[in-house]
Amino acid sequence: MENNQHHHDFFVIKAKENGVHVIGLTRGTDTRFHHTEKLDKGEVMLAQFTEHTSAIKVRGKAVIFTRHGVVDTDE
Ligand code: TRP
């Protein structure tokens, strides 16, 4: 698990409005929310996929930067 490079991928989320939620989902057979971070307009969160986090869900208007490209949830 620790050698999996994908766990070290960083992503950046920039909120375009108040109250954007970044929700972390657990790795493994049990997929559930484990953390919700609330961002206000202009706030930026840098995070990684980890041993504990295999997916994220972003709710609200934000720009998400990953090594695969940029996604604007508003477009
Ligand atoms: N404790 C979490 C972890 O190590 C922290 C975390 C990392 C997180 N990436 C995240 C929380 C993405 C929410 C979204 O996995």
Strand content: over 45%
Query: What is the number of strand segments?
Result: 7
* Structural class computed from helices and strand pairing: mainly beta
Taken together, the total number of domains comes to 1
Largest sheet report = 4 strands, antiparallel
**Poorly predicted segments:** none
Mean pLDDT: 93
Shape: globular
C-alpha end-to-end distance: 35 Å
Give the second-level CATH assignment, the architecture. Sandwich
Number of helices: 0
Helix percent reads: under 10%
List the ions, cofactors and other small molecules found in this model: tryptophan
CATH fold call: Immunoglobulin-like
What pattern of helices and strands is seen along the backbone?
Answer: EEEEEEE
Describe the structure.
The chain is an all-beta fold. The protein has one domain: Immunoglobulin-like. The chain has no helices and seven strands. The relative contact order is 0.33. Bound molecules: tryptophan (TRP). Residues 22, 24, 35, 37, 47-48, 50, 52-53, 56 line the site of tryptophan.
Keywords:
single chain, 75 residues, mainly beta, Immunoglobulin-like, 3-stranded antiparallel β-sheet, 7 strands, 0% helix, globular, binds tryptophan
